[in-house]
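Researcher: Structure for this, please.
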Amino acid sequence: MPRTATTEPLFEGARSAVEQAHGLIGHLLTFARRQPLRPTSVDINECVRQTQLMLRRAVPAGIEIETRFSDGAGLALADRNQFETALLNLALNARDAMPDGGRLTIGTMDVTLDAAYAALHPGAPAGRYVLVAVSDTGSGMPSIVAERAFEPFFTTKTGAEHSGLGLAQVYGYAKQSGGHARITSEPGRGTTVQLFLPRFGDAAPAPSRRAGANRGHGETVLVVEDAPLVRNAVAKMLADLGYRPVMAAGAEDALALIESAGPIDLLLADMVLPGGLSGEELAATALRLRPGLPVLYMSGYAEITPPGEAFIAKPFTKAQLAEQMRAVLRSEVAAA
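Model: Predicted structure, token format:
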């Protein structure tokens, strides 16, 4: 059929359909782990910097883009093009969650997932990774939706442009790269997607010579975490490190323990808690009741790191927890 003014819309419609089908097939192949990847050594910090212009064009002006690069983040073994696609999909997903504006935060750091973490998260191989965390301050998702967010074609959005494959591509890319993807979300507080990419050319970490120096000496640690699996895993880490963990599922239970006469040597609190109090508000109340109580915050949300406070990012290993615990306790002793 010759192209004329009458037939031009038909050709354009056909071309658009082919392009959409090509993208759809690419997403499906990535999710099914059959998309051919070309992994090379990628400087993730530099890659994110160079991708910012593309992300800026993809989200409205009412959304602020913030980056938090760890200077120690190493090279990742990754397909750069597919990583940029994953980053764009995460930005678009965040954009849809913030129709009235907000903040998109991209953070990087080196992490080591140990056997304990791998046991709690099937499909997450233990090893060294470059972690890319993409957080938004949007509407968030209830747990029943977050648990299915990586499934292909699953979406709560309306409209033909929402295929339900954006997060599926991210998950498929992470798994095919030998890494891991994790999503945490809470209605009204936003969403964080963590993308773990294997480090390039890294050997297994050597045992720390300071392991003994970082052990506890029977100190009582109040762990405030609403997720039972995480709470129990942290308690086991603390017990293995020589501490005595006491657990609370939320701020109300924690305050009851803080108001009691029992010993508490450190408060380890998640930043996001159910009920009316956040981890920071809980700590403020705890310090009024027990002045000088050491506090260590933990969270998987990059954008709510409390400035100037002791903080450990989820997921963390036993060695990382040990180091942070001793640093907080040593600083309190020095201040006294």
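Researcher: Any notable elements?
Model: The CA atoms of residues 97 and 316 lie 27 Å apart. The first helix runs from residue 8 to 31.
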